Amino acid sequence: MGTLNRTPTRPAAVSLADVLSRAAADDHLTREDVIAVLSARGSELDAILDAAGELRDRGLREAGRAGIFTYSRKVFVPVTTLCRDRCHYCVFVDTPGQLQRAGKPVFMSPEQVLAVARAGQRQGCKEALLTLGDRPEERWPEARRWLDEHGFASTLDYVAYVANLITTETGMLAHLNPGVMTADELQRLRPFGPSMGMMLETTSRELFETPGQVHYGSPDKDPDIRLRVIEDAGIQHIPFTTGILVGIGETITDRAESLLALRDAHRRHGHLQEIIVQNFRAKPGTAMRDAADAELEEYVAAVAAARLTMGANARIQVPPNLSDPAEFALLVRAGADDWGGVSPVTADHVNPERPWPHLDDLAARTAELGFELRERLTAHPEYVNDAATWIAPEVHAAVAALADPVSGLAAAGTTPAASSATRRSRGSSVETLVTDASTDPASVADEDWERLLTATGADLDAVTRAADDVRRYTTGEAISVVVNRNLTTSGLRASVSDDDRDRDTFTLADVAEIARDAADLGASELCAQGIIPIEADAYLELVRTVKDAAPTLHLHAFRPQDVWDFATRSGLSIDDAYRALKAAGVDTVPGTGVKVLHDGIRARVAPTDLPVDQWLTAIRAAHAAGLRSTSVLFYGHVESAADRIAHLRTLRDLQRETGGFTEFVPIPLPGYGVPLVADRSPIDEHRAMVAVSRLLLSGAIAHVQVPWPRLDSATIPVLLRSGADDLGGTLLDGRVLPRAGVEHGRELPLSEADRIAQHLLRPLRQRTTDYRDARPSQRAHDTASHRTRERR
């Protein structure tokens, strides 16, 4: 791989003060000027960041949206992962053999595309980002065969078809990102989306022409060809997204020349609606897996250089999932004003190891940095407000339906309008029901969900395939797991003598040791559940003890019935009880303590569980207090298929109301043995439960967990092929007491989780309790403290 000059030197003849003065006066910077900006470090970089931020602020004032930072609420639609290129850092692309081994299609079907789009629509997404490999039919006969069989002349023709389908069926707007296109192809695609995009990445010919470099053997990464596409998009009046990729082996000079090429194209046509400055992140399994990530200072300098080069009125985007939140302050100081597309539904399929930030968290962090986060459309406001020039007439109405007529941003409170759903009759075929369940779950009647839940044979195979496709195209291919330890808090005592001590009892002093031990073992979570038998204040004392002993440990604590016990004995309302627990240090809460949301069933099989109304009240109170929770269903006793469907519907409705569930866990009861379908095998019972859960909860609860402690090892991978995407916790037993609990001794080491993932040809992702990336940053954080101060 090429090497980047990690210790750049500013051109001696360039005065940095003069560069900043020219940038502020909107004078065009020279190549040497931009190199000087990119090379700056120390106090000079500080001055550049201040100047870039001031330039951004001026541009926002001139645009009439001072203090506004934007993003687009989107779904990511990977139309095909075949490509004719061979980029050395890419994990997005597959070969036909890899697709076959993983059971993945050559192209997403229209039904699969609509399943993703409608899931996004239900979450208020307005953009469908269509991303794919470049012209796969020119390299792979399998791609050519699929297109011929489905009546499409080319991949780009299929892109036009699905883009139109998305807008027609959901009201969402397609952003087309299919790679290199000719002028004629750009013109043909223009009526199907208000914007398009293609990263320039770099103008470096060395990286393209030299064997072993990142773009060698990739015909579509020829810089001249990519610059031609950008130029043609301007000629065609297409709002266009492009940008540079920092740290793939390009030199400082390459980087400067890339920014200047974009500036010059925009100067000619005014069509570059945003410039993405993306930092390289090394990925396992690629030729660049051992390359260093882009260093923080060089990345921040590149963001500032993009701002100073492009000017006050440019939109400079930094992808928030590729940086640690602690680095956001630097990126904002450097002149960024847009986070790009962020999805509450789908993974970043190009960077699957980097989950999107929660939008509420992103808004809060943006506000801490002095800006209000506002949603925009896939076309930026300047282009929306001049639709006659920039937007094809065919999508004018769709854009206007979602845009604020004054600002051009996304209109507050709008949701794309769906085509009217037709509820199928009970007589519909299973094939039809599977399609409806995948693309529009709301159109499926309860009795038909019951049919899918009781399917057998080939029908069940079709249900599980569809569920796994929905999983693949929403949460992605990664299998996630959290490193955690359980603590059964019903064993807490005020004191325990040596004579009375047993494996079930412990004191607060033991809790501190348990927490420290869990953290030392690498756990990120301690899960604490159980009614505490001593004074009620012990709930809060236990929380404080954990946080004092292991401040970085995420505390996932107390079932609804535990919190009701704390509230009742403390004289608190349930709302106040959750607020008190959160203030003490609880981070999230388990949503257990209910088998099936049906009081008649509860009375028969779990009379000590909370009444349904109390459980629902507790969960609403937890979510209102800002505490996210899990959700569960225990199955395999006296409940019917209708009871299970009603339970899932209640969870879905509650999620629409509160948005507080992180995952759903379908759990077979110990001693499972009451099938819904006579003579159906236990593994098929589990497959049906997981698959229907994925389909019915799609677009509401993102993650479906395999409760591995309740299953044999052969069943786990089968369920991960039936719509599940998560393994829950590792359940470390630890080295100190207590060693009690229903799951004691059932530990899942990360090495075993990785073996399961490798067997399925899927990556393993170590997550936090709330599905953030649990791995420590690989980027250095030793910049001077004054660099992390907030500008406002």
Supply database-style keywords.
792 residues
Detailed description of the structure:
It is a single chain. The protein has 792 residues and is of the alpha/beta class. 41% of the residues lie in helices and 12% in strands. It has 30 helices and 19 strands. The strands form four sheets. Strands 1, 2, 3, 4, 5, 6, 7, 8 and 9 form a nine-stranded parallel beta sheet that branches. Strands 14-15-16-17 form a four-stranded parallel beta sheet. It has a three-stranded parallel beta sheet with strand order 18-10-19, covered by helices on one side. The radius of gyration is 27 Å and the shape is globular. 53% of the residues are buried. Residues 1-6 and 777-792 have low confidence and may be disordered.
Per-chain topology:
Elements (H helix, E strand, L loop, with lengths): L15 H9 L6 H9 L2 H21 L5 E13 L15 H7 L7 H13 L4 E6 L8 H10 L4 H16 L2 E5 L5 H7 L5 E3 L8 H4 L13 H13 L4 E7 L5 H18 L2 E8 L16 H15 L5 E2 L10 H6 L4 E5 L16 H10 L3 E5 L4 H4 L2 H4 L5 H7 L27 H10 L6 H8 L3 H18 L4 E4 L1 E5 L19 H13 L4 E5 L8 H12 L4 E4 L2 H11 L3 H11 L3 E2 L9 H7 L6 H13 L3 E8 L5 H18 L2 E8 L13 H16 L5 E2 L10 H6 L5 E4 L20 H10 L4 E3 L26
Parallel strand pairs: 1-2, 1-8, 1-9, 2-3, 3-4, 4-5, 5-6, 6-7, 10-18, 10-19, 11-12, 12-13, 14-15, 15-16, 16-17
